[in-house]
Amino acid sequence: MVSSRWSDVGLRCLSAVTFLVLWQAAAGAAASALLPGPATVAAALVDLVLHGRLIADLGITLLRVLLSFALAMALGSAIGILMGHSRRVDGVFDLWLVLGLNIPALVLIFLCYLWLGLTDVAAIVAVALNKVPNTAVILREGARTVDRELLQVADVLKLTRGRRLREVYLPQLYPYFMAASRSGLSLIWKIVLVVELVGRSNGVGFQLGVYFQFFDITHILAYTASFVGVVLIIEGLGLRPLERRLMRWRA
Amino acid sequence: MNALEVAVTRKAYLSERGETTALADVAFAVPAGEFACLIGPSGSGKTTLLSLIAGLDSAYDGKIQLGGAAGGRLGMVFQTPRLMPWLSARDNVRLALDHAPDSAARAERMLREMQLGAFLDAFPGQLSGGQQRRVALARAFVNDPDLLLLDEPFQSLDAPTAQHLRDLLLALWSRRKPTILFVTHDFREALSLGDRVLFLSAGPGRVVLDLPLDLPRPRAPDGAAVEALRKRLLESYPDLLRGLPSARESAA
Fold first, then answer.
1. Are the C-beta atoms of residues B74 and B66 closer than 8 Å to each other?
2. Which of B55, B75, B123 has the CB atom closest to A249's CB atom?
3. For residue B248, is pLDDT > 60?
4. DSSP at A239
5. Which of residues A99 and A235 earns the better pLDDT score?
6. pLDDT in tens, B156-166
7. Which of A22, A197, B37, B57 is the most buried (most CB within 10 A)?
8. Chain B residues contacting A, CB < 8 Å?
9. Pairwise CA distance, residues B44 & B86, whole Å
10. By residue range, what is the domain housing residue B42?
11. In Å, how far from its chain's centre is CA A101?
12. Strands B35-39 and B18-31
């Protein structure tokens, strides 16, 4: 098992190196400011970290990601679980859900800014609302598959509400929480950038907009690389180990 | 004193084909410490009756009373082990105990008693079918229940494993003396285990025969004493026992 895990890591490294090599080769062939190579982008990145406002932008963007992620997961899970358990609730909200899934992100962003003003609250609400229907759909599926026979065991053992939730009910939903978290994180950080571009004066999205106006592809890529890097770290050091821990009984 | 008093006048449920009566006029009592077997053909409402007694379903006419005024502690073993796949064997057994400081130690002691000392940290998926059922038995016994309900707990196991588990159950019962209601459709199993056998008719289920057994233990399900009794009962009550799979098969 250990050796297979190491060969897995090796494969990932090889894939990353291949990507960089192809990128460098393409940049060399193009020899144009429209496609800077990885070395140029890396140099710009270092410069931005040392002398620019990248760290501050990254910080504020991550905070927005985190808050809207938490809000969307809490709201979406609650709605989804209720819908999964009650046919009546499902009947009432199903149409809303379809509507929510199909409203373009940009429309929700505009509406939130217009209704709530150009504030951080509006930004976070807009991002969260974009993710809520998706979380609700996933958790509704989860709630529908909950094993009633195991809940009967909890009844017979007269478990307290807390233990029933922690030890019998929620573990059945963990795979669905994990799926919603992962797809949520990638969806949310994409939308946060749009929200920042449209209505904030700081953050990664705002900076990207500025560089776009100057045709500064090197810095656009440097900001993108830093952000993707952070998201990969969250995934690798946060979500993946968490999933391994929650799912170890499946091994 | 009776540990269990059942007087269900009617239990029906709605299905696509309309209302089906599962139980009609089922009445019996089980004295404290008795090992009672409940036997009946499939569709006679055995599992339904157990879920009424366990309090999983309260939509019925009649009355069910458990162990005196206090209500008594209840343990249950289902047809399938119904372990939580995400909990270790120890934590599955602990589920039946509140979070007292010694609950882990009690769970471990119980599992060792079931000869599962080497599997305390194993998840159910890593255990064999027989081992999973032993964990389920441990979970049912660990809080010293006054009344233990078992719903065909050893079906779909190979014969030696099932017999091993029956022996374990009898050993636990004679040490701790809970009242047991053991549901089965296997005639030999009922005759080899019980102090008494209650026969349920085909649906809607009714108690059609209440038979005390005074065979000395241990009794093997395929032993001569059980076999002789089985034949005698078949001759005395041929109609009654129709529909029981193991009653029909000829003695090999």
1. yes
2. B123
3. no
4. I
5. A99
6. 888 888 998 99
7. B37
8. 51, 54-56, 74-76, 78, 80, 82, 84-87, 91, 95-96, 123-125, 139
9. 34
10. 2-73+145-248
11. 16
12. unpaired
Site of tokens 């599955």: B92
A11 inside domain: no
This prediction has a pTM of 0.81
Alpha-carbon distances of B191 from A225, B139, B186, B227, B235, rounded to whole Å = 74, 25, 9, 9, 16
Structure tokens at A64: 């927005």
* Interface contact B85-A249, CB threshold 8 A: yes
Tell me the per-residue pLDDT of B112-123, one tens digit each, with 9 for 90 and over.
Answer: 988 899 999 999
B220 in the same domain as B177: yes
Chain A residues within 8 angstroms (CB to CB) of chain B: 149-150, 152-153, 155-157, 159, 163, 167-168, 171, 174, 246, 248-250
Q: Is residue B136 part of a domain?
A: yes
User: pLDDT band for position B14 (50/70/90)?
Assistant: confident
Residue B78 falls inside a structural domain: no
Q: Does A154 reside within a domain?
A: yes
In DSSP terms, B179 is beta-bridged to B147
Q: What is the rounded distance in angstroms from the CA atom of residue A7 to the CA atom of residue B90? A: 35
What's the CATH code of the domain at B39? 3.40.50.300
Whichever domain contains A142, its CATH number is: 1.10.3720.10
Evaluate if residue B249 carries a pLDDT over 50. no
Buried b (16+ CB within 10 A) or exposed e, A69-101: bebbbebbbebbbbbbeeeeebeebeeebeebe
| B154 and B217 part of one domain | yes
pLDDT single digits (tens) B36-77: 999 988 888 898 999 999 999 999 999 998 876 556 788 999
Q: Domain residues for A159?
A: 56-250
According to the model, what pLDDT value does residue A55 have? 92
- Look at residues A33, A72, A41, A82 and name the one whose alpha carbon lies nearest to residue A215: A33
Q: How many domains does chain B have?
A: 2
User: Domain end: B99, B118, B143, which one?
Assistant: B143
Flag whether A197 is in a domain: yes
**Same domain? B152 vs B232:** yes
Residue A210 inside a domain? The answer is yes
| Identity of residue B7 | A
Q: Which of B103, B120, B143 is the last residue of a domain?
A: B143
Same domain, B41 and B104: no
